[in-house]
Amino acid sequence: MGSIFLLIKELGFPIAVALGGGFFIFFIVKYILGSVTAQVKSIHGIIMGLNNRVKTMNNDIIKIDAQMNDALGLEPDTDRIARADGKIDARKD
Fold first, then answer.
1. 46 lies in a domain?
2. How many Å apart are CA 16 and CA 52, to the nearest integer?
3. Containing domain of residue 59, as a range?
């Protein structure tokens, strides 16, 4: 408690209060950013899962489209197959 009075004596009351307010704001901002980064990491995981599902569905749709074209005797859409060729299949099976 004596150090607080010494700080007020050396710097003056307004400066001591400003320093105290600065520390308070620093800790509040640190707490808020800590909770926000945790939420961002959670949302990032959800988005990555959805992205994998979209890639899987795209690969499945291209596969079904090629099978239907083959069954109906139509020419396959080679441009669509070529665009998907070389992309990583997101399925985990």
1. yes
2. 54
3. 2-84
75-85 tens-digit pLDDT: 877 777 777 76
**Residue 93 covered by a domain:** no
The DSSP annotation for 13-69 comes to HHHHHHHHHHHHHHHHHHHHHHHHHHHHHHHHHHHHHHHHHHHHHHHHHHHHHHHHH
- Greatest mean pLDDT range, 29-33, 53-57, 68-72: 29-33
CA 3 to mean position of chain CA atoms: 44
pTM of the predicted protein model: 0.54
**Whether the Cβ atoms of residue 58 and residue 84 lie closer than 8 Å to each other:** yes
